[in-house]
From TrEMBL:
Topology within the bilayer: Multi-pass membrane protein
Gene source species: Eggerthella lenta (Eubacterium lentum)
Keyword Metal-binding: no
InterPro entries assigned to the protein according to its UniProt record, in alphabetical order: ABC/ECF_trnsptr_transmembrane (IPR003339), ECF_transporter_component (IPR051611)
Name of the protein in its database record: Energy-coupling factor transporter transmembrane protein EcfT
Protein keywords: Cell membrane, Membrane, Transmembrane, Transmembrane helix
Superkingdom of origin organism: Bacteria
Annotated localization: Membrane
Keyword Transmembrane helix listed: yes
GO cellular component terms, semicolon-separated: plasma membrane
Length: 245
């Protein structure tokens, strides 16, 4: 496996890495800002549907459908089950569903960013905005850390199935241990390998890094920037009382 590999990413929509990061911040802001009303609800719906739509058009329909179903389930559980439950269980359901509904769209956006952006594209975009090296280097390592950890998790799952370690035969605690302990060991090793690979590739060197990838803003970037600006602007204006809620 090549670490910090720069390869072609399958996608049908091409966005500049800077646009993706702005979208990530905008989705997080829209879902975490308080308040209610038609204006704020409309802005939130726009930012809510954006990551799922981008995942779908980028060819990751399964991931988009799974995350959207999880979001709909958490919202439905709050609306339907909470009025029928009382006491501590009510609090546990409300807290869990609120956390899930607020963070699942952000997780979907982050997944889209990591799945459709190569390290070279991110590095080129960071140099365009003159981002400091102490921020760029850890983020560039993360772009390879999570995909590599995902491959290791799938390998651990395959090894467990080969040994017939399933929920029915191994207890829940043992099942978590069989998955968690190998993943922790893999995470440590992956971090060391990625650090060595980043030094080998010259990340952090005092000279300017060259890139052969092509980045830039297009029509899709303009649409995403406009949607983010409108949504965040409406949320800020509504929360400050400049426009009616």
């Amino acid at each position: 496996m090549e670490l910090l590999q720069t390869g072609a990413v399958e996608r049908t929509v091409r966005l500049d890495p800077r646009t993706k990061l702005v979208l990530l911040v905008s989705v997080s802001t829209a879902l975490l800002v308080g308040g209610s009303g038609p204006v704020m609800d409309a802005a939130r719906v726009l930012m809510l549907l954006a990551p799922f739509a981008l995942l779908a058009v980028s060819g990751r329909i399964g991931a988009a459908a799974g995350l959207l179903v999880a979001y709909a389930a958490s919202w439905s559980l709050t609306a339907l089950a909470v009025p029928l439950v009382e006491g501590p269980l009510n609090f546990a359901i409300v807290a869990s569903c609120m956390i899930a509904s607020r963070f699942l769209p952000t997780i979907a956006t982050a997944y889209f960013v990591f799945a459709t952006t190569t390290v070279s594209e991110f590095m080129a975009a960071a140099e365009r905005v003159h981002a400091p090296q102490w921020l760029v280097i850890p983020l560039s390592v993360l772009f390879r850390f999570f995909p590599t950890l995902g491959e290791e998790a799938r390998a651990v799952g395959s090894a467990m199935r080969m040994r017939n370690l399933r929920l029915g035969k191994a207890g829940p605690v043992s099942l978590v241990e069989y998955r968690l302990v190998p993943l922790i060991s893999c995470a440590v090793q992956i971090g060391e390998d990625l650090s060595a690979a980043s030094l080998t590739r010259g990340l952090g060197a005092p000279v300017r890094r060259t890139n052969i990838c092509d980045i830039g803003f297009g029509a899709a970037d303009v649409v995403v920037w406009a949607a983010c600006a409108v949504s965040v602007g409406l949320l800020v204006a509504s929360s400050l009382g400049w426009i009616g809620a």
